[in-house]
Design a protein that fits this description.
- The structure is a single chain.
- The protein is an alpha/beta fold.
- It has 19 helices and ten strands.
- It has helices at residues 6-19, 24-30, 51-72, 150-161, 181-195, 206-217, 222-230, 247-262, 283-289, 302-316, 322-331, 336-352, 359-369, 379-390, 394-397, 404-420, 426-431, 438-454, 456-469; strands spanning 35-40, 43-48, 78-83, 106-111, 124-129, 171-174, 201-205, 235-239, 266-271, 293-296.
- The strands form three sheets. Strands 7-8-9-6-10 form a five-stranded parallel sheet, sandwiched between helices. The protein has a three-stranded mixed sheet with strand order 1-2-3. Strands 4-5 form a two-stranded antiparallel ribbon.
- The longest helix has 22 residues, at 51-72.
């Protein structure tokens, strides 16, 4: 065998073994894109599309990879990753970059006769054009990528390249307000529409789906039309899925979900909370939300906030001093929406007052938008306050101790973190409380809420600590 081709032969042998172990769809998604680069002694170097791809491979298939490599190469086998060089994200340009509004192809639907037929609408097969309801501004070109959303972006671009054919089905995007959930979901839809114009894409919010369902059940024979309409969709994006309340609505959505998923159509959902935190949802729906990939969008860091402001300057075609952008990025920390609002407000004030964009003007605008807290509340700050209040150590708080006082303090700590810290996920709280999982954190928060409603002394504990952490509410 040619020594220059040895790595190719070894990787081919490796893939044949792994293909027998891993599910076909996941094998195609996670192993086929990997390319062998070289082998030196027992060290095989492979190329992967991204850091996220490498992290996912190691998180999900490390044991399979290790055992198979030892079988193919030998006991000393090692694997080295190289991240494939990618083009840098295209710069955001002035509004033309947004592109044209996507339009779906016409599809055939079967209209059933109703109790009160219109003389102008006849039952039978009809050609209709479904409005995808995609805003061209919410494209990937205008999406700012940072550590806060990199996983969502990577999953989104993978879906856009092969809708319905990746392991990310459904894709469940969750996070606080203004963090880009709608933008990311629509960007995926727009990218799919551009690459696969023959596919029918639809963006809709949960409340609108519920309203359509209620209208359908109030008109005889229209529920069939309603379900038939949704079964024509190739890519269904449902924003604010938490609004799908009501047993009838959820039953209809379950029907649509099952049908589309089984025939390989792509499903994308957004929510203001993780699947485990959704209230009043049927268990069968919640289990299906977890079938694919759940991605949390986090609060953007300073670097990402500054990138967004610079991109806004290019998109709006305006010039704003770097010192002004840095001031806004360092003072508006909550989410992208507030940051964009502050940016546009500075522009508007400068125009109205015939003044230059300046740090002084940015400071005036910022004061009207956000109230800068006396101090930032963090998980360690909450834990320190709870430990001081109950006279215990931090080590005891995050330990596995089942002593009543320790358990009580631990549960209150998790409850306060969830309620007082903006965009603080259950998983983040659990990770800093002795490695608890999100289900344990959620249970603790619910326990505290229940006890506050029935135990006056316990409620005083929580109120005292809230006052300590939020002096303005004392």
């Amino acid at each position: 065998m040619n020594e220059n081709e040895r790595h190719i032969s070894i990787w081919s042998h490796f893939l044949k073994i792994v293909e027998q172990i891993v599910e076909p769809q996941k094998f195609a998604t996670w192993f086929k894109p990997v390319r062998p680069v070289s082998i030196v002694d027992s060290t095989l170097t492979v190329e992967v599309p991204s850091d996220f791809f490498r992290e996912y491979l190691e998180a999900m298939y490390l044991d399979v990879i290790k055992k198979t490599l030892k079988r193919v190469i030998g006991a000393d086998a090692k694997l080295v990753y190289m991240v494939r060089a990618v083009r840098t994200q295209p710069a955001i340009t002035v509004p033309e970059a947004a592109g044209t509004t996507p339009v779906n192809k016409e599809v055939s639907v079967n209209i059933q006769p109703s109790g009160n037929p219109s003389p102008f609408v006849y039952p039978g097969i009809h050609k209709i054009q479904i409005n995808p309801k995609l805003n061209p501004v919410y494209c990937f070109t205008n999406f700012i990528v940072g550590e806060c959303n990199k996983m969502g972006y990577t999953a989104g671009t993978a879906i856009a390249a092969a809708p319905g054919k990746t392991s990310f089905n459904p894709l469940f995007i969750f996070g606080g307000p203004g963090l880009g959930k709608t933008h990311l979901a629509q960007a995926i839809g727009i990218a799919i529409h551009e690459k696969f114009p023959e596919l029918v894409v639809l963006y809709i919010n949960g409340h609108e789906f519920k309203t359509q369902y209620m209208d359908a059940v109030n008109v005889r024979n229209k529920l069939t039309d309603f379900l038939g309409f949704y079964k024509k969709i190739d890519v269904l994006i449902v924003d604010d899925i938490q609004d799908l309340q009501g047993p009838g609505t959820q039953a209809a959505f379950f029907n649509v979900f099952n049908y589309l998923h089984q025939i390989g159509k792509q499903l994308i959902f957004t929510s203001d909370r993780a699947p485990v935190e959704l209230q009043n949802f049927e268990d069968r729906l919640l289990s299906r939300f977890k079938w694919g990939l759940s991605v949390e969008l986090m609060t953007p860091d300073y670097k990402t906030r500054l990138k967004m402001l610079q991109a806004l300057c290019r998109r709006e075609g305006v010039s704003m001093g770097e010192d002004v952008l840095e001031y806004l990025a360092s003072h508006i920390k909550t989410n992208f929406r507030e940051l964009e609002g502050a940016f546009l407000s500075v522009m508007a004030y400068a125009t109205a007052m015939h003044a230059e964009n300046s740090v002084e003007l940015a400071a005036k605008v910022t004061e009207k938008i956000v109230n800068t807290p006396v101090r930032e509340i963090t998980i360690p700050a909450v834990q320190a306050a709870v430990c001081e209040y109950f006279d215990i150590s931090t080590e005891e708080l995050v330990s596995k101790s089942r002593k009543r006082q320790i358990v009580q303090a631990r549960q209150i700590s998790m409850y306060l973190c969830r309620n007082l810290i903006s965009n603080c996920s259950l998983s983040a709280i659990g990770a800093q409380t002795g490695g608890k999982d999100h289900a344990t954190v959620l249970h603790s928060c619910n326990m505290v809420s229940d006890l506050m409603a029935t135990d006056r002394v316990f409620k005083k504990y929580v109120n005292d600590l809230e006052s300590k952490l939020l002096p303005s509410k004392a």
